[in-house]
Amino acid sequence: MRTISVDGQGLTPEAVAAAAAGGAKAALSREAEARVRESRNMVEELVAAGEIAYGVSTGFGKFSDVHISSHDTARLQINLIRSHACAVGNPLPADTVRAIMLLRANALAKGFSGIRPETLRLLIDCLNHDVLPVVPEQGSLGASGDLAPLSHVALVLMGEGEAFCRGERLPGAAALAKAGLRPIALQAKEGLALINGTQIMTAVGTLTYVKALRLARIADVIAALTLEGLRGIPDAFAEEVQLARPYPEQIGVARNLRALLRGSALTTRQGELRVQDAYSLRCLPQVHGATRQALDYARDKLSIEINAATDNPLLFLAEGKVVSGGNFHGQPIAFAMDLLKIGMSELANIAERRTERLVNPALSGGLPAFLSRDPGLGSGLMITQYVSASLVSENKVLAHPASVDSIPSSANQEDHVSMGTTSARHAAQVVANAAKVLAVELICAAEAAELRGADGLAPATRALYDRLRGAVKPVTEDRSLTGEIERVAAALLAGEWLGAVEAVAGPLY
């Protein structure tokens, strides 16, 4: 199994996704452990000297002006975790919790946080032994970081709270014991170091981005199959058209479409059946390309955030300084997730419009109404378009930017917050909905290809058609398609079929 070095600087979204899926172990690098130990020494020196430092010898938030005796610094951290662990809602999925733990460990490994090496190692050991804290999904404002949900992670390290271990939900102490691990007693600053950060929104956002990119890439293939089913015109994807408006992402999508449609006997030329296609076909490079721009922006911000120190205060060893700052503020990720969900909402929006063209006899160019083999007696795929329309409408509500809202907290000490975790959670819902919309389009496009003559498909789209037919048989008679839509959506999110297409078409953008 792959080992990921936790060093505070080398993580990628793909590595996070691998660890989240349980396909990698984490190991603290020697250099990082040395930095963490030096940082911890600085905290102990501050406590011994009785110096004032936020969260070490003071209360939290509005209580930052309340001095805490050195005799009470450990109790202060325990109280912090217990009081802040009040998140609500359904538990976050196992893959998300693994990502959260890896990202928090990576931030602490930078050596700015003052945690003890043994506390950090316990966090990594829990990840590697699959002791996964029960983390409710709601309750973060996204500034002072993700305090409430991250506190549920820290509770388990203390032997409190709840955790899943080998599929069983247990009290925190029992879960640790089952894995052969011992709880720790928090010391000065450690509770704050564990919870003051953006790891909930960043974990949700990173896994959402990875899935969104898979969907964006397979969406080009599905759209190409739809274009064949509608006898569409690939001329609009010509390279010279894209170079006249040289967005790299638009150029990349058009290049994909040309490769995917190479060898098709079902496409037409300008003027053969019609002069030009509707926008949902003709503007594929422009719309899908713009979504890729949004995803590129999200990746850039996530790549910085997963290797950032996002707690407060930060300890700077070379300067001998403890600085109260604002790196916990989730605004960069809030904006990135809001942009991602808008981009993915539009990817689903245009896919639903293509589905409508496939099932609407007034728009499909001779296909039977709703792709029914017995129109009237059989409804065919009529209601699948209803389902897509419902999901697209839901996405339009979810795409409202959470980052434009802020509610002051802690008696107005924390008077502007990001709502970044809400942005990330909504983005995850948008992506899940988009997968189902694309699954519906793929099922309808395959049915159209069946009716047109699948032998005329391009080799690349035929590869996707064949994979789809392994999961969804032709709809020759009316049947419930719920399970098939869900299974296809899951396959698209996992990126299961893209490799078969690229084996024929070559690497896709």
From TrEMBL:
Pfam families: Lyase_aromatic
InterPro entries named among the record's database cross-references: Aromatic_Lyase, Fumarase/histidase_N, HutH, L-Aspartase-like, Phe/His_NH3-lyase_AS
Modified residues (2,3-didehydroalanine (Ser)): S144
Gene Ontology molecular function: any one: histidine ammonia-lyase activity
Cellular localisation: Cytoplasm
PTM note: Contains an active site 4-methylidene-imidazol-5-one (MIO), which is formed autocatalytically by cyclization and dehydration of residues Ala-Ser-Gly.
SUPFAM superfamilies for the chain: L-aspartase-like
Crosslink position(s): 5-imidazolinone (Ala-Gly): A143-G145
Top-rank EC class of the record's enzyme: lyase
Enzyme Commission number: 4.3.1.3
UniProt pathway annotation: Amino-acid degradation; L-histidine degradation into L-glutamate; N-formimidoyl-L-glutamate from L-histidine: step 1/3
Domain of life: Bacteria
Catalysed reactions, as listed in the record: L-histidine = trans-urocanate + NH4(+)
Keyword line: Cytoplasm, Histidine metabolism, Lyase
Family in the record: Belongs to the PAL/histidase family.
Name the UniProt record assigns to this protein: Histidine ammonia-lyase
Species lineage: Bacteria, Bacillati, Bacillota, Bacilli, Bacillales
